[in-house]
Amino acid sequence: MLVDQDSRQIGTPDLKKGKPSVLVFIKDECPCSIEAQPIFNSIAKAFGGDAQFFGVIDALPQAAAHYAQANVVPYPIICDPKASLPKSFKLVASASIALVDGNGSVVKAWPGYSRDVLRQLNLLLGTLSKAGPKEFDDSDAPKEMTAGCTF
Predict the structure, then answer these.
(1) How far are the Cα atoms of 52, 87, 134 from residue 46, in angstroms, in the given order?
(2) In which domain, by residue range, is 111 found?
(3) The CATH number of the domain where 8 resides is what?
(4) 12 has a pLDDT exceeding 80
């Protein structure tokens, strides 16, 4: 069982609450993670209660709490100091994304982000949540697939 930035336990059951979940993989102090965070915040806010979002950071709760506060992250950040979660999705760098359905099954994982990836995520998330795609600001998203520091 892992903990979030407030040392609350988070585990697989949290990803099986009937709502799709998006995991955003963060490398502590990686400029790419920091640069991408406002875009992930925007899509998370657009989906509101229709989907769950979790950050996953390779750090302990104190660093995760600092990241969450500094980047105004509107969702829990799971602390994974050994970066076992991104590795389990075969993701090697920050700003990667995984989409999990409401039963806990992996739908898709992306090894970074781009405008097209975020639009795919929006469509899939809209379908899984039955809320439809949402309007969000992707104007700062890169056109080409971008990833950050390796785990």
Answers:
(1) 11, 28, 6
(2) 2-129
(3) 3.40.30.10
(4) no
Contact between 138 and 115 under an 8 Å Cβ cutoff? The reply is yes
d(CA 8, CA 78): 9
- pLDDT for residue 69: 97
Q: Which of 22, 57, 45 minimizes the C-alpha distance to 148?
A: 57
Phi, psi of 4 (to 5 degrees): -95, -170
Q: Report yes or no on 148 lying in a domain.
A: no
**Tens of pLDDT, residues 15-65:** 777 899 999 999 999 999 999 999 999 999 999 999 999 999 999 999 999
134 in a domain, yes or no? no
pLDDT digits 0-9 by tens, 107-123: 999 999 999 999 999 99
CA dist 42 and 103 (Å) reads 25
Which residues lie below 8 Å from residue 61, measured CB to CB, with a gap of 6+?
3, 4, 5, 6, 7, 79
pLDDT for 126: 97
Strand partners, 114: none
